[in-house]
Write a structure and sequence with these properties.
By secondary structure, this protein is of the alpha+beta class. The protein has two domains: 3-134, Fructose-1,6-Bisphosphatase, subunit A, domain 1 (Fructose-1,6-Bisphosphatase, Chain A, domain 1, 2-Layer Sandwich); 143-254, D-Maltodextrin-Binding Protein, domain 2. The protein is 33% helix and 29% strand. Strand 1 (26-30) and strand 2 (33-36) form a beta hairpin. The protein is globular. The chain binds L-MYO-inositol-1-phosphate. The site of L-MYO-inositol-1-phosphate has 16 residues, from strand 4 and strand 12.
């Protein structure tokens, strides 16, 4: 697989992603959970092209039935638009997030924000890049030195009390918190040192597969909130960091520090 070909293919989705008319052609999937004609357009642009370029790799995507996918092989894991609510509001913080999993873990990723024209990429053992330039996580040694991005699990309002208790604990001990609305961008911002840690519950594998490959190649650490490998078949509660603050992050989330 050549990353150059993959990057060029993902960048071709820019025209679809910036089509504001399609961004307002919306279906409601659930509480605060939407899909637009842009989501479908990006998915149906990439799906046949990836199959033609890499016929032996399976395909999993947010806006389709993935029940037949066998995670023991190689699988594309696509979020056609991560940050769909941001897209609908023209908040300009959304990304095409394409990960590649091999034997159940991410080994490559491309995350592209068409609004900023920033493309994050990584392949296992090859380093992580932003628009072709190498990126590394920050040097923050403690949460007190950190900017921490948080997610609010907006599709699961029943988690609000629990989530905001954790967010309050992180706010008290960190420099400050941020909330961008795209898990893939949060993981990539951690990879390039713009933020130092990230927490969000009940994310889906397509929200984080590509960003995990990129953040790990940039020297960071991503686990579920118990410290284990996230699932790539079920939703996971994600803790991500520059690695240096990861133990403290897990303890603060658990309320043990
Ligand atoms: C979104 C994530 C975001 C999270 C939302 C949703 P989507 O992905 O990127 O961080 O808070 O609940 O999961 O649904 O826009 O692809």
């Amino acid at each position: 697989m050549t990353m150059k070909k993959l990057i060029e293919l993902v960048k071709e989705t820019r025209k679809i992603a910036l089509d504001s008319g399609s961004a307002h052609d919306i279906e409601i999937k659930g509480t605060a959970d939407f899909v637009t004609k842009v989501d479908y357009g990006v998915q149906e642009f990439l799906r046949p092209r990836l199959r033609e370029m890499y016929p032996d790799i399976q395909f999993m995507s947010e806006e389709m039935d993935n029940s037949g996918v066998d995670m023991s092989g190689r699988v594309w894991i696509l979020d056609p638009i991560d940050g769909t609510t941001n897209l609908i509001h023209d908040y300009r913080m959304s990304a095409v997030s394409l990960g590649l999993a091999e034997n159940g873990v991410p080994v490559a990723g491309v995350v592209y924000n068409p609004f900023s024209d920033e493309l994050f990429s990584a392949e296992r053992g090859g380093g992580a890049f932003l628009n072709g330039k190498p990126i590394r996580v920050s040097g923050a040694e403690t949460l007190a030195q950190s900017l921490v991005s948080v997610g609010t699990s907006p599709y699961y309002k029943e988690l609000a009390d629990e989530n905001f208790e954790v967010i309050k604990r992180l706010f008290i001990c960190a420099e400050d918190i941020r909330r961008c609305g795209s898990a893939a961008m949060d993981l990539c911002y951690t990879a390039c040192g713009r933020i130092d840690a990230y927490f969000e519950r009940r994310l889906k594998p397509w929200d984080y597969a590509a960003g995990i490959a990129i953040l790990r190649e940039a020297g960071g650490c991503v686990t579920d909130i118990s410290g284990a490998e996230p699932s790539y078949t079920e939703p996971s509660d994600i803790a991500a960091s520059n690695g240096r603050v990861h133990s403290e992050l897990i303890e603060r989330i658990a309320g043990k520090a």
